């Protein structure tokens, strides 16, 4: 286990139930400052839920989520909105405001949170759009963008206020290889350039492994493995191996739990 | 048997809980009204979408309902030789009942369902969550302006409906069926009281606007963010809003015009 | 420019609403803007008011001079007590004026018709009509007619 010294987000004893089902049971996660941390795991293990918990959109049943020592779940509405100014989040679908142009989308956080003069807003917006390579698309509406472009615009919007923490929810899902490569590159470059902390939630192993400094693998309501990409590659636990190598059968079974196949078939025969 | 009772009880409790959620939601969005300067452009836009774009359907329906009332009223009243009372009948039924009720029903179908679908889609495409993460309260930014716009627009639409309807009735009664114009209007003006009839009709419209918009906005906000969930929420908006309007109309009528 | 169009149409919409309400007030409900007419209150007792209701007309020689504001039962005399407001400029009703409940048309609405008397003293605010004539009730008329037929 690596020793993490400068921790920005510290999740302790997190427990979260959705209905009867436990999504997280007593989970601890530390996110180092200025690095790229990846949260990985099969679908349905609550990766996105974790981001929502960190962003304060959901409240855990128990446990603490500390952002620089402030416990997010215990914050009031007002303090929560203030702490969110330090976070940026890139949603899976991009979540651009469909009634605003690309330019207005990126300008929106600036207009809401600052009282900058219009010329300065313009310069900032163009800088952010330049960073994602879409300065020329400023007058388009979100409906006119491809999926990959929409995600890049959303990224420009997420970094508009220069957040300390940037969270990516499945940034690579459903992208063609070129768009995927662009995004991987962009996330890496932005992280190096601005020094913010990145958290990537994903199940695209190759891409994520390539840029992450530290990786947590979630399954069954808990962390099953963590470490640098090299450490995880060397991991021998069957669960981790199955996930990383993408094997169809293993500890996560191919078959949904069912009665014995043969007797199930015979049953139909007997009844018929 | 016991299971049936338990299930009924659970369903009932769920309904009560949903009602409670809706009430809390209403409180939050009313309290969370944005700063006036930010509110104005947003409100303007919503009045445009909810009000101005509903005007045509309101005018056309009002005209036809007024004309039908004129026609029906004439055929009934002429049998008693009191066709001069057509104006009175048309105006009273429009101003007291039909204008606020029919406007609210049309409004629920035209603007209410659109509100639900819009907010539901914003939820499904994570725009609401995105607003929250940017540090903007979606209740303030999205819900409150829509709520106030609906609240404001329905009385206006209802007044337009009533006026157009009265002129539609006059068109049929006076121009086509030949009721003497003077007695048509005089009878109407003698029997319609501004405070008792016109203003009470307006109060009804205000109440309906409040309820229909509340239901529409809440259903959108509470919808399951899938295409099926949104279509169900839209249907629920129209059904619940229509039932609420008709039920409330009886209560309000009893309070205003009945001697209860 | 799109924003400007929207602003104009919303403005027009709000004005339309205000105008519609104004026209409902003036044309449909016949509310006159110089409504602050002075009036004074008079009372009358009737044995039967038929279908008279609050807001019914009060006329004199067929001209509208006021309206009924309240109807109650006088517990002492066991008769209907009608309170009406009469325009102040109608100040020539003498104390022996009479009030009767009339019907517009065969089945029409009930209203009060006032006819002036000959005395010099005029009715003042709060006074009572002494001479009243109740509504004609169709059933009573028919009943009387049949009774007379039978007794003949």
Descriptive overview:
The complex is a heterotrimer of chains A (about 270), B (about 260) and C (about 150). With about 270 residues, chain A is α/β, with parallel strands linked by helices. Chain A is about 40% helix and about 25% strand. Chain A has a six-stranded mixed β-sheet, sandwiched between helices. Chain A is globular, with a radius of gyration of 21 Å. The termini of chain A are far apart. With about 260 residues, chain B is an all-alpha fold. The relative contact order of chain B is 0.16. The model of chain B has no long low-confidence stretch (mean pLDDT about 90). Chain C is built from two helices and eight strands. In chain C, strands 7-1-4-3-2-6-5-8 form an eight-stranded mixed β-sheet, with no helix packed on it. At the A-B interface, helix 2, strand 6 and helix 3 of A face helix 5 of B.
Q: What labels describe this entry?
A:
heterotrimer; A: alpha/beta; four-stranded antiparallel beta sheet; C: 152 residues; alpha/beta; 2 domains; eight-stranded mixed beta sheet; 8 strands; elongated
Distance between the termini of chain A: 59 Å
Tally the helices of chain A.
Answer: 10
Content-based structural category of chain A: alpha/beta
Q: List the secondary-structure elements of chain A in sequence, H or E.
A: EEEHEEHEHHHEHEHEEHHH
Q: Kindly provide the radius of gyration of chain B, computed on alpha-carbon positions and rounded to a whole number of angstroms.
A: 22 Å
Mean pLDDT of chain A: 83
Q: Summary?
A:
The complex is a heterotrimer of chains A (272), B (260) and C (152). By secondary structure, chain B is mainly alpha-helical.
